[in-house]
Amino acid sequence: MNTNVAYAQPAPYVSAPARPARRLTVVEGGPRFAAAPTVVWKRGTKRSLAWCVACVLAIVLVACTLFAAKTFFDQVSYDAATMGLEHTEVSVSKGDTLWTIAEAHPVSGLSTREVIDLVKEWNGLESGLLSPGEVLTVPAA
After folding, report:
1. Do both 60 and 109 map to the same domain?
2. Alpha-carbon distance 50 to 7, whole Å?
3. Which of 53, 68, 83 is the last residue of a domain?
4. Cα separation of 73 and 65, whole Å?
């Protein structure tokens, strides 16, 4: 027998290097990079707040002024359209409403709704209820 024969040996098993187990480490003082606090005004807090309040007040003042101007000019145009209007009297028939009467007697420059308000004002009506045979003063068509 030949004793000089080398047989192939399997390589010894080498395991992966051991990793250290993960551990939770609590560090006093919180996270390393803390987020910066949210600051609305960095400098002049009172001055910045005053500017914000002044801007809001200015916007409210402008809105109120525009509303008042619109109301004023609507009233002026209504007065101009109704000034010197000829009027006539109409007897209310069964089924008549203020809307149908206002549509039958239009006024240039006024909507049907405004003509209804004018008829109610001229006749001292509180509501839109009409009775057949009632006589109303309306704008002449």
Report:
1. no
2. 94
3. 83
4. 12
Tokens found for residue 52: 């914000």
Q: What share of the chain is helix, strand, coil (3-state, %, to 5)?
A: 40, 5, 50
pLDDT digits (tens, 9 = 90+) for 89-137: 999 999 999 999 999 988 887 889 988 988 998 899 988 888 899 999 8
- For the record, the structure tokens of 106 come out as 């239009």
The answer to whether residues 48 and 97 belong to one domain is no
- The neighbour count for residue 52, using CB atoms within 10 Å, is 12
In a domain, 29, yes or no: no
Long-range contacts of 96-102 (CB under 8 A, 24+ apart): 96/130, 96/132, 97/128, 97/130, 98/125, 98/128, 98/130, 101/136, 101/138, 102/138
Closest CA to 93 of 101, 84, 104, 85: 101
